[in-house]
Amino acid sequence: MSKRDRKKEIPAFCVELGKHLRALRAENGLSIEEIAFKAGIDAQNLRKYELGKQEMKVSMLKRIADAFGITTSELLSFDN
Questions:
Q1: DSSP string covering 10-58
Q2: Domain ranges (residues) in the chain
Q3: Helices 58-68 and 32-39, packing angle to 10 deg
Q4: Using CA of residue 58, residue 59, residue 60, residue 66, what is the dihedral sign?
Q5: What are the pLDDT tens digits along the chain (80 aa)?
């Protein structure tokens, strides 16, 4: 099986982080498009992060935290 044929398994932490992102957005009454715009990323990518279908780099965590107006530590502070 080639690398292309294998799907990369997403760590459970990323799935939980995605749920947390979605909850933060809901708590703040923001749309995916609003946060994506503030973070300077594509809304489709943010959706993948929220659904736990894509891992994100530390630099992306920082951009998303900035879009929420919080630190990366605050963004990562959730029960997983």
A1: PPHHHHHHHHHHHHHHHHTT--HHHHHHHHTS-HHHHHHHHTT-S---H
A2: 12-75
A3: 120
A4: positive
A5: 555 545 678 899 999 999 999 999 999 999 999 999 999 999 999 999 999 999 999 999 999 999 999 999 999 998 75
pTM: 0.84
Mention every residue, 6+ apart, whose C-beta is less than 8 A from residue 54: 10, 14, 45, 48
The dihedrals phi and psi of 31, each to the nearest 5 degrees, come to -90, 165
Residue-level pLDDT at 2: 55
Residue type for position 78: F
In CATH, 12-75 is 1.10.260.40: yes
